[in-house]
Design goal:
single chain, five-stranded parallel sheet, 51% helix
Length: 156
């Protein structure tokens, strides 16, 4: 197995997705890898912005939101890790796969929200589509499986 040097940690900026980002940061700190924390700005948000100058404002808004997300949810995991952030316009699953290819990512660590039934059928699963199309291994994290004990041990 090749050494993992670059980890991609996608987030939708939700509390559930923070578990995957925290896991990626802790893993990176342990093995000496760099992490790119990534957010795709979905089409629904983009539709509110018609002019290209406003789209630039939207990306800037999400760059700031991504930094704030890391401060709120991951501050205890940030020291000792090379971190890059990136927010771009587009469909999450497609963008995640494209970024992984372009940046030569060795591993994608992504949270799954665990939707089932009708919600899964209607909304689909970004994680599932990333797993199917990724150019590298994907580690899927179920937030409810990461208990307080695991977070405490990981932070130590």
């Amino acid at each position: 197995m090749d050494k993992i040097k670059k980890i991609l940690a996608p987030t939708d900026l939700s509390e559930l997705s923070a578990a995957g980002v925290r896991y990626a940061l802790n893993l990176a700190r342990t093995i000496g890898a760099a992490v790119t924390v990534y957010h795709a700005i979905e089409t629904e948000e983009l539709m509110r912005y018609s002019r290209s100058s406003l789209r630039g404002d939207l990306v800037g808004k999400y760059d700031t939101a991504l930094q704030r997300f890391l401060e709120i949810h991951c501050s205890d995991f940030l020291p000792g890790v090379e971190i890059h952030t990136n927010a771009e316009l587009g469909a999450a699953d497609i963008n995640i796969v494209d970024v992984a290819k372009k940046e030569g990512v060795d591993l994608i660590v992504i949270s799954t929200h665990g939707r089932t039934g009708l919600s899964h059928i209607l909304v689909g699963s970004v994680t599932e589509r990333v797993v199917r199309n990724a150019p590298c291994p994907v580690l899927s994290i179920r937030p409810e499986k990461i208990g307080k004990e695991a977070r405490t041990a990981a932070a130590a």
